[in-house]
Amino acid sequence: MGNEHKENGTVAALKKEMEALRASYEEQLAALQAKRQEETQQDEKEERRERFMKAEEAYLNEYVEVKLFRDNEKYKDDVYVAINGKNCIIRRGVGTRIRRKFALLLDQSEIQDLRTAELMDREAGRFADESRRRSM
């Protein structure tokens, strides 16, 4: 009877150990699956980013038509535009096809010129008001 009880105890201990091992393997498997899913999501995210960057680059490199204002005084010379080592020269008064990135840079430059002129007008007005106030 002692051997039978010993064998039952050994079998029970083996079953318990097997359940612990199974639980451990299932945890490891779940961790590996989670890691694989995370890597897949990262890969998809990187692919979306690459597609976006290629689409942006294609958009910025499309050709557009521009015609810059020309007069016989301040705005008579050609305009040199450069972005990251790439450059172009745009003739004034003539319709010219340039890459969109250069046209956008020209637009940004014009907006900045307008803001600068507004700031100068505002500061000149402030100076005039302050001068009148101090009777200068």
Map the helices and strands.
Elements: H1 2-60, E1 63-66, E2 79-83, E3 86-90, E4 96-99, H2 100-133
Antiparallel strand pairs: 1-4, 2-3
Structure at a glance:
The protein is α+β, with helices and mostly antiparallel strands. It contains 2 helices and 4 strands, in the order αββββα.
Defining traits:
alpha+beta, 2 domains, two-stranded antiparallel sheet, 2 helices, elongated
Query: Distance between the terminal alpha carbons, to the nearest Å?
Result: 120 Å
Rg calculated over all Cα atoms:
37 Å
What pattern of helices and strands is seen along the backbone? HEEEEH
Strand content bin: 5-15%
Secondary structure: number of strands:
4
Strand arrangement in the largest pleated sheet: 1-4
Helix content: 55-70%
Instruction: Give a quick account of the main beta sheet: strands, pairing sense, barrel closure.
Output: 2 strands, antiparallel
- Tell me, rounded to a whole number, the average pLDDT: 91
Structural class, from secondary structure content? alpha+beta
Give the number of helices: 2
| Total domain units | 2
Shape: elongated
The low-confidence parts are: none
Characterize the structure shown.
- This protein has 136 residues and is α+β, with helices and mostly antiparallel strands.
- The chain folds into 2 domains: 1-60; 64-133, no CATH class.
- The chain contains 2 helices and 4 strands, in the order H-E-E-E-E-H.
- The protein has helices at 2-60, 100-133, and strands spanning 63-66, 79-83, 86-90, 96-99.
- The strands form 2 sheets. Strands 1-4 form a two-stranded antiparallel ribbon. A two-stranded antiparallel sheet has the order 2-3.
- The chain is elongated, with a radius of gyration of 37 Å.
- The mean pLDDT is 91.
